[in-house]
Amino acid sequence: MASRSSGDEPSSLLMEENAVQVSVDAKLTVAAGRGNCQQLKDLLSTEDSKTMLVVMAPSIQASTVKPLPEVMSPLLLSSACSGAWQDLEFLLNRGHGQPHPSMNSSTNILDLLTAYGSHSCSGKGASMQKASDDVEALLNLPSGSTVSLLDGVTIEGGTALHVVATYGESDGFLRSADIIHSKANHLLFARNKNGDTPLHCAARAGMSRMVCHLITLARGENTGVNRVKELLEIENILKETALHQAVRIGNNDIVKLLMEEHSELASFPKDGTSPLYLAILLEEDIIVETLYNASHMKLSYSGKNGQNALHAAVLRGTELTKKLLEWNSDLTTQRDENGSTPLHFAAALAQQSQRGSICWQVLEANSASLYQSDCNGLFPIHVAASVGESGTITMFLNKSPSSAGLQDSMGRTFLHVAAEKRKVRIVSSACRNRSLLWILNIQDNDGNTALHLAIQARSLRMFCALLGNRHTHLNLSNNIGQTPLDISLYGVSPGIFDDQVMY
């Protein structure tokens, strides 16, 4: 049927509700974008019924989703894992101009070529011949393809060079690394899903020869471009360099090797866990010394959660603490994410009142840190009280008597904390100390004295210690109008006091 033509009606077919067939000689005009607006207007004003107007939206931006990476060929993966450089070379050259694999390759590659060759062949020799005649077909690569086998990656996103660097450091593995680098030198800087380079992998595996070899490749003796520093400073997703991997496995030889190549490597990352902090955390004392000496004091002390190396050292021994304080006494003033200084950490340790102890060392290095509170307003003396370290509290008070009156964000002194935590020895000692009479009746933000809290804690021994000091007031009311006597009469049932447990 011919298209309808009338001088009385518009000819736009798109405006008509009923479907109308269009003659084959109708013109098709496509307007896609703002530049065609005038063209559309002109066409709409015409009487040409043989013009079909098609309005198309502007082209949609191509998808930004990255295609999945190629999966590494099992032939290549097997050769890389075993360090069979001849097999690797044969595969990467795809058989072109190469001798028959039986002449220069291992039994492994022959078996693999046979297995991935024509399974319909009756004899192994025939299958192997077929495989070697068309290696590209075996590798599922189009004939003449420019796609490289080295584009394939493992499940972890590692390249062939990652695999070689991980699995060995014999001459075969080193030669394999050379072959891969000659084909694709950018793989030396490639990262897997964890952000690790081949150098990370070699260091983590303790392959010192491979680490040295990869550094040599980065030196670019063939290209004339030295990229060693760039390679060593690469951080993975955990912000760790290859030096961190060497520290983790406790390999001091690799640590020395890396530090000799880059003396400031121990200062990376600029924010995060430093190699020194990690070494102290793992109690690798020898590596700690190596990092400090090889860095010429240009190293980072930072650690996780805002901590520094001294935070880690005080929890791991007197010797490490002593070294850190000698190297950098300013670490005593630094606070972590919770506001805790190294002295807060040391105050929580047991039996720290003797001379030379960890807590004693930190206190001697900076006695002003006694007056640094954490994010909850707790001072080191509050921490010591919460764990019941009466000796540590005595040491603090001998150093700075005024620290006895320090109050946290809840208005509590160390005596309040001790009473609340039922640390009887600390409360009893404080009640016998004439220099502490002035803190016995300090009230916290709720108006409670230590006596209020001792009664609430239902400890008869603490109650007796406080009541036995005639300077303790019995009639101070807290914010809800209760005196210690009120709490004892109405808040505690008869016989509920615990006077059996020693604290």
Automatic annotation (TrEMBL):
Q: Name one GO cellular component term.
A: plasma membrane
For this protein's source organism, the top of the classification is: Eukaryota, Viridiplantae, Streptophyta, Embryophyta, Tracheophyta
Repeat among keywords: yes
The ANK repeats are at 238-270
Q: What is this protein called?
A: Uncharacterized protein
Matching entries from Pfam families are given as: Ank (PF00023), Ank_2 (PF12796), Ank_5 (PF13857)
Return the PROSITE patterns for the record.
ANK_REPEAT
| Domain of life assignment | Eukaryota
- Xref: InterPro entries: Ankyrin_rpt, Ankyrin_rpt-contain_sf
Could you tell me which species this protein originates from?
Answer: Aegilops tauschii subsp. strangulata
Q: Which UniProt keywords apply?
A: ANK repeat, Repeat
